[in-house]
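Quick illustration, no need to memorize.
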Amino acid sequence: MALFEYRSVTTSGRLMTGTIEAADIEQAKASLAEMNVQVTELEKTKESATPKSIGHNEFVLFNEQLASLTKAGIPLEQGLRELAHDAGSSKMRSLINSIADELERGTPIDEAVGKHQKDFPPLYGLILKSGVETGRLSEMLTNLNRHLQVELRTKRIIVESLTYPAVVLVAAALIVTGLLLLIIPTFAEVLSDMSDGKAGLPYLTQFVLDMSTHVWDFWLVIGVIAVVFAFIWKSMAFSAAGRKTKERFFRSLPLMGRVFRNGSMARFSECMSVLINAGCTLDDAVELSGQSSSSELLKQDCGILAAQLKEGSNFLEAGMGCKTIPRLFLYSVQLGAQRNELKENLNSLGRMYAAKTFSLQSQMQGLMEPLLIILLGGLVGTIVLAMFLPMVKMIQVLM
């Protein structure tokens, strides 16, 4: 199958551009004729490198624009065509035009988006379908935008939090390596003479001197360990059991674990809120939100919770066996369902968990800088102390 780009005029006189897949140009013309459009230009697209997937920022911008257009009352197909003209990349333009083509053929919105599911967030097609059917598309897209902004900020903070430690650790490695290679060897012979041979040196000094003669061997071992660890860590992502193991590790960390748990619950609450607003039942909202989350443990708990809800259990009782869902969340949802305030409670929970996540992330950023400075100072101080210990020992003997 080849890809053809076309320009055409609809029966209403509106100009339309897009792409279509066909075996040859004749089949492309026949397919366009079935769409009741008058083709003005039709040519095969030039073969090029595989386009990159759309970025997170680009999708957020697209979703914000789509929310604005639907709020203005513009039909979805027409709104997508308008957005395609302003798309920032050829990949995004092609995606939007392809979805608009499917809609004009009568394909349901969830199926049209489902054909490009790898390029969109989970449940995006369902959100669009539910919004169209309930007449609340703009509101649902706005809620999704808020969730995407939270997710984007979380990723940015994590990247910033990891960048600084990486720079400091690299600097520490370079400083320590420089000391061991350039400074320490010049003291080795002098210190040995001062202490009647190497055996007379303090243990810490002996260790540092030995390290200076095996620096490259040390870094070779560290490099091999790092490569093996990275391979195992990456391999764990290909199995559910491996992903659960990684998640348990993150959850067990003192401060980062709390960031991870609250971030997962913020996303889970936001997703449930969107689905409840779309008219989903509580059990379906729980199950779909779990499936769309990046947490394997949460997905497992949501499957169990949804199954018990379908059997008639109330939310609080059904969730007592869940290890990843806090009791405060269970109680709030149960109370909201009883008082017919479920949507409001879920929105409040989402904001609360997001606020906790941001607060903990700020604490984590604030703690990392002094801890890493202490680590760097401790390494350099240990080496300096090792060099001075023989002198201190000699002074004690003379006194």
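The chain has three domains: 1-48, 54-120, 136-399.
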